[in-house]
Amino acid sequence: MSFPSRPYPRLPALSDEERIERARAAFARLSSRRTCREFTGQPVPREVIEAAISAAGTAPSGANHQPWHFAVVGSP
Predict the structure, then answer these.
(1) Nearest Cα to 56, choosing from 44, 72, 42, 40?
(2) CA triplet 43, 45, 49: central angle to 5 degrees?
(3) CA dist list (Å): 54 to 1, 3, 48, 50
(4) pLDDT for 11-61, tens place per residue?
(5) Which of 65, 48, 46, 66 shows the shortest CA–CA distance to 57?
(6) Where on the phi/psi map is residue 47: left (φ > 0), alpha (ψ -120 to 50), or beta?
């Protein structure tokens, strides 16, 4: 699946203080991430899986090649 390229939106003009505050806020959000080590046994709707794969496929990659493959396993 390929997506049309879009130009980047213009970056807002920010003061140094605003940039520092945004950097600190980003650090606070990112430093609270955790690895999920507990899972439910409930089935996941196929539509949710397909949406997650579609989103993952839009991640940036070198030269926009998206050199990855996804596999869905439906049974334990």
Answers:
(1) 72
(2) 105
(3) 9, 11, 10, 6
(4) 889 999 999 999 999 999 999 988 888 888 888 999 999 999 999 988 888
(5) 66
(6) alpha
